[in-house]
Amino acid sequence: MAVQATTIETVTVVRPLKVIALVCLLIAFFLLILCLSTTWWLRSGGFRTGLWLECTASDQTQWTIAGGPPPGRCQKIHRHAAYIKLVAAFLITAAVLTFFAFFLNVFGLRAQDLHRKYVFYKFATYLSLLGVFLQLVSLIVFPVCFYVEMKNFGYRNWEFDWSYGVAWGATLFAFGASLLLICDKEHEEVYFKEKTIYNPPPELK
Q: Which residues cross the membrane (predicted)?
């Protein structure tokens, strides 16, 4: 009589939403670094300002901003910079949170234990959402406070420049990653394959 043996094979399939969320977090992190390190948040003629420095273009023939640097030079922001420091601190914190959320997502993709995967994805989602919140607060506080303090520059014709737009891009990518992690509630699809093996009796071998 044939001997029947049954084996169960576990197959874990990585869902593509997790991989897309990983890419979004990476893009958001680099965009945050870019907007933090540039001086093109606001512009008025040949004068521009970022979160750390304010600069005057080299082709600017006269200083249009009171207390601004000479043409072709940059200087540290010195006028009522409390809110700018707060915005910079929030964005740096958001970049750190996005960085850790990225690696937690990587650990979740690589982990074999399903419980550990769940924990990694859960904390990645929390960190990403917190980073999005800090970015939103920063991007709202910055223009509001600047409008209040605009009189200190002695000039009222200002435009948001590309660094501010990049910051919004980072926020959108981080928010998209958070949504993908939240919507993908299955975390991982696990399939159990049952395989039955029939061994012939010894006398037939």
A: 19-42, 86-107, 119-142, 162-183
